[in-house]
Amino acid sequence: MRNKMDNQSGKERMDKAAKIKLNKLEHLFDQEWEIIPAGGLTGEAFFAKHEEQRLFLKRNSSPFLAALSAEGIVPKLVWTKRLESGDVITAQHWLNGRELSPDEMVDRRVTKLLKKIHTSKPLLTMLERLEKRPVQPEKLLLEVQDGIDLNLLQHPTIQKAIEFLQKKVKFIRYDDYAVCHGDVNHNNWLLSEGNRLYLIDWDRPLIGDPAIDLGMLLYCYIPGNDWEEWLRLYGMELTTHLQLRMKWYVVMQTILSIQWHKDKSRFHEMNRWLTFLHNIL
């Protein structure tokens, strides 16, 4: 595990990188604007404040952000500027609000907003224009197998999970593709002071089976006895095929999460997801 000095040096490097990026942003505003890093792992996001005006700035967001804003999925996009360096800066309304708690994920507004995303033709068209192609389970399986290190491959739960993915991959074909968020964790749901719900953090949108989002949401937040009713409100029947697809994608995403936490030396979280995976299987 990384020691305290390693963690501190990593934080200093991130703070330094954020300051460099901050200096490049400041010429977008006059000196009366206050611009501060918004945190996060990439250092690409900032808050800008001047009197009653507040903006959330991000460097090199996907053009997909404009479509999300038009659909009311994310806070309103105010403007987009291209810098001389070639970087693109987007500004959105900075809303006072909070993320949902795990218990609040049963809220019907979550169901309705996810349904809106999955059935949106404008969002799907925009991703297709950006040359996104539907993700195929066979390709995802190869990525999982190639991305797991040898130590994890020796873990019995990981072995059982990969065996499950290999055995079932040919049975989960589903061609009614939708725009998927890919990380519907409660931290990415923003409830504004005006009681408006948004789904944020669209850095890696994809086209694929809606079960990619549905599985993680149901497995992590909705009691099993309530799945049928939740999906009825969403507009889908809980068939055995959907159950298999959701389980397959949850197992796949959980393996990737376990590897990610291991790479970051976040062993407590790694073990928590290993337990989650064991219980699913």
What share of the residues does DSSP label as strand, in percent? Answer: 15-25%
The secondary structure category is alpha+beta
Q: Which parts are unreliable, with pLDDT below 50 for 5 consecutive residues or more?
A: 1-20
> Any guess at the CATH architecture of the largest domain?
Alpha-Beta Complex
Overall spatial form: globular
Question: What is the CATH class of the largest domain?
Answer: Alpha Beta
Number of helices: 11
Q: How many structural domains in the coordinates?
A: 2
What is the CATH fold-level name of the largest domain?
Aminoglycoside 3'-phosphotransferase, Chain: A, domain 2
CATH superfamily of the largest domain: Aminoglycoside phosphotransferase (APH), C-terminal lobe
Average pLDDT confidence is 87
Give the strand order of the largest sheet, numbering strands 1, 2, ... along the chain: 1-2-3-5-4
InterPro entries: Aminoglycoside_PTrfase, CcrZ_PhaseVar_Mediator, Kinase-like_dom_sf
Domain Aminoglycoside phosphotransferase: 38-234
Pfam family, one: APH
Protein name: Aminoglycoside phosphotransferase domain-containing protein
